[in-house]
Design goal:
By secondary structure, the protein is mainly alpha-helical. It contains 13 helices and no strands. The protein has one domain.
């Protein structure tokens, strides 16, 4: 009974976290700075809160676990950096579809490395959600302007980003069960921040917002998306089989699509709504 209740709470946490993450692409779109600096400030403004959380969180990570969490953060920082680059080098369709491969990689890695069994129901859920995500991405990309410089490099970056995020989730899954959520989030966010800052400097994107509302948005991104969203996800992923938790993360594109509809008048076509329904069916 307690185990079932714990899994329900973990699944709910993953869904809430994924919903918060759906705010991230909206924030990047309206940000006064580029995608890489936006990611940097997301991590930077979250870090003080996560530091306090880590001090209060139990159990404390060992030095070995800290090393793994720093690696997880590097993978996460690389993922968000590669995603931003992929969108500029390949088509929107390709970049989005490749990003949606993360749960597939995570499920395979979990099966190979953590010996987590993939039941028929889990595979059916993955298949339905992946199909729905593909349909949603294709529907939203219809009529989009394709960049002339798209090619294999952009596709490779998008593919690598999906693998990187799967690696991040796998480490959080392995370490999260024996380390407090605050410790998981602090150390992973610290290294992700360094990676995002490095990407910003290499690409020479301006780091500073121009207005008070611009800074307020960056602070909110750090608090709501990184502390809240990734915190809920770290809790859920650490207590669920990786294949299940990553399917739940497909709630993110649903929230992003709904917000784009409301805020930017990007209406969802019947095809997109069908894809959204398939995602929900896969999650269920």
């Amino acid at each position: 009974m307690n185990e079932a209740k714990g899994r329900t709470q973990a699944a709910l946490a993953a869904l809430i976290g994924a919903s918060f993450l759906g705010l991230s692409p909206i924030a990047i779109r309206v940000s006064e700075v580029g995608a890489q600096p936006t990611n940097f400030w997301r991590f930077a403004f979250a870090l003080p809160i996560l530091g306090l959380w880590a001090i209060l969180s139990r159990p404390k990570p060992s030095l070995g676990n800290i090393g793994w969490l720093l690696l997880a953060g590097v993978l996460f920082g690389i993922e968000v950096s590669l995603w931003g680059a992929a969108v500029t080098l390949t088509t929107v369709t390709n970049a989005t579809l490749l990003a949606n491969l993360t749960p597939i990689f995570a499920a395979v890695f979990g099966w190979l490395l953590l010996r987590e069994r993939l039941s028929a129901s889990i595979l059916a859920g993955i298949g339905a959600a992946l199909t729905g995500a593909a349909i949603l991405a294709l529907a939203r990309a219809q009529g989009a302007v394709h960049r002339g410089e798209h090619g294999l490099l952009g596709d490779a970056l998008g593919f690598s980003a999906a693998i990187g995020y799967a690696g991040y989730l796998l480490i959080v899954r392995a370490v999260g069960a024996r380390v407090g959520v605050g410790g998981v989030m602090f150390w992973a966010t610290l290294s992700a921040m360094i990676v995002s800052l490095s990407a910003s400097l290499v690409l020479r994107e301006p780091l500073l917002a121009h207005t008070l509302p611009g800074w307020a948005m960056l602070v909110a991104l750090g608090v709501v998306v990184q502390v809240g969203g990734q915190g809920f996800i770290a809790f859920g992923v650490g207590r669920l089989p990786i294949a299940i938790s990553t399917v739940l993360l497909w709630m993110q594109p649903l929230v992003a699509a709904a917000l784009s509809w409301v805020m930017f008048d990007e209406a969802l076509s019947p095809l997109a709504l069908g894809g959204a329904a398939l995602i929900l069916a896969g999650i269920y």
